Inverse folding.
């Protein structure tokens, strides 16, 4: 019983860092996803190609490599410092998952009935007004379930920040395990439990979004 309490208290030390990385990564990756997703559908050739290049780079390389790149390579090769490893972790996770989620944004916007755009043009709406009042509300409804799933994936991705020295849940689990080798199975069991508890609100959010998305989107 005492070992259970000891492990729990040790892992609790990493909750703050895990939550900071999770919350900021969700916020930043969401912004990146919308900017990149909208840019992929832009008529501007350079913007379209640059965004496509970004998406392919971050989807085609490992998140672990990206973490090492922002934490070690940028400062070492280009003398670019992000302030702290926590921002390196947040930026790597955000750019990685932002690239994946941008495809959800792009495909959802493309899936909105062309008749909706034609009707808004007939109502003399500007391009911005069509996107703001007609296309995006329907596209957002379609992307909600997948968006919720990616929030859970982002939580899983936060466990990798221990590789660049951030003192998150897994970091403290590894520290405790290194001095209590006989309790290794128990340590990782409780690490799993901690991440599952953190995932519960995101799972509930995803299910809620699935219900919202089923309320209907106008189809072509």
């Amino acid at each position: 019983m005492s070992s259970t309490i000891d492990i729990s208290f040790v892992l609790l030390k990493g909750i703050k860092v895990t939550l900071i990385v999770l919350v900021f990564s969700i916020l930043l990756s969401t912004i990146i996803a919308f900017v990149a997703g909208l840019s992929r559908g832009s008529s501007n050739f350079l913007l379209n190609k640059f965004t496509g290049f970004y998406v392919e780079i971050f989807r085609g390389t490992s998140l672990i490599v990206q973490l090492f790149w922002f934490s070690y390579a940028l400062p070492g090769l280009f003398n670019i410092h992000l302030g702290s490893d926590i921002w390196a972790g947040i930026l790597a996770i955000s750019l990685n998952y932002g690239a994946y989620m941008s495809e959800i944004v792009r495909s959802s916007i493309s899936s909105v009935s062309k008749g909706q755009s034609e009707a808004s043009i007939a109502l003399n709406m500007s391009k911005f007004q069509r996107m703001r009042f007609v296309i995006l509300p329907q596209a957002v409804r379609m992307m909600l379930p997948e968006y919720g799933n990616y929030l859970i994936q982002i939580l899983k991705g936060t466990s990798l920040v221990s590789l660049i020295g951030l003192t998150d849940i897994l970091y403290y689990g590894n520290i405790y395990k290194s001095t209590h080798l006989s309790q290794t199975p128990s340590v990782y069991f409780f690490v799993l439990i901690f991440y599952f508890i953190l995932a519960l609100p995101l799972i509930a959010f995803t299910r809620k979004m699935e219900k919202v998305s089923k309320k209907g989107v106008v189809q072509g």
About this structure: The mean pLDDT is 90. The chain is about 80% helix and 0% strand. The longest helix spans residues 127-158. The radius of gyration is 21 Å.
